[in-house]
Structures are given as structure tokens and as C-alpha cells.
Amino acid sequence: MAMIVGGVASAAIAVAKGHSMPAVSSPQTIWIILAIAASGTLGNVILLRSMATPGLPAGVPLAIGAAYPLVATLLAWVFLAESIGARQLLGMLLVVAGVIAISI
């Protein structure tokens, strides 16, 4: 529900600033919207099931999920040739250390 509210609010702000909204008419656009909705739902289902796994502390899936900025940074470095500075490297190491510390 929060994602729907956020999307509506973002669209309202964009329209208020004078940005035009693309028409959702092509089948490709509709499939993209459905894929986004399905992937978000699937991700939440997997997260909730992993949190309910016997013997696995609930904090472990949350800590691993919180590492998505690390993955995004690495993907940007590989595919977009973005540079990674010392501050980003330190942050990435802290994230990995945090996930390891919670998993132990």
C-alpha cells in the first residue's frame, strides 16, 4: 500500500511541476508495469517466508536485504563504469561486516 501511495504522490508532484505523464497504451508498457508489480510482490513473499524459516533468526534476511545499495553500487561499477570512491568502499565494507556480524 505504501508503494501505491508513494507512486501516486510522485505522479502528483511531477504533474504539478509541469512534467507530462506518458500514456499507458502500448502492450509493452502494460507488461512492464505488471512485471514491476509482480517482482515487488514476489520479493516481499520471499522475504516473509525467509523470516519465518525455523532456525534462522529473523534479522538475517533483513540484514541481507538491507545490502541492496551495495549490490546497486557494484552493478553501476560493472555496467555503467561508475567510479567507487574511498567513502563508498568503506560503506560497502561496513555493510558486509554488519551482515556477517548479524549472521554469526
Explain what this protein looks like in three dimensions:
This protein has about 100 residues and is mainly α. The protein has 2 domains: about 1-50; about 55-104. It contains 5 helices and no strands. The protein is extended and about 50 Å long.
Topology summary:
Blueprint: H1 2-16, H2 27-51, H3 59-65, H4 68-79, H5 86-103
Helix pairs in contact: 3-5
Shape: extended
Order of helices and strands: HHHHH
Query: Could you give a short account of the major beta sheet?
Result: none
Task: Write down the Rg.
Answer: 18 Å
- Helix/strand-derived category reads mainly alpha
Proportion of strand residues? under 5%
User: Span between N and C termini?
Assistant: 34 Å
List the uncertain runs.
none
Q: What is the tally of helical segments?
A: 5
Can you give keywords for this protein?
104 residues, mainly alpha
Summarize the structure.
The chain has 104 residues and is an all-alpha fold. Helices cover 74% and strands 0% of the residues. 0% of the residues are buried.
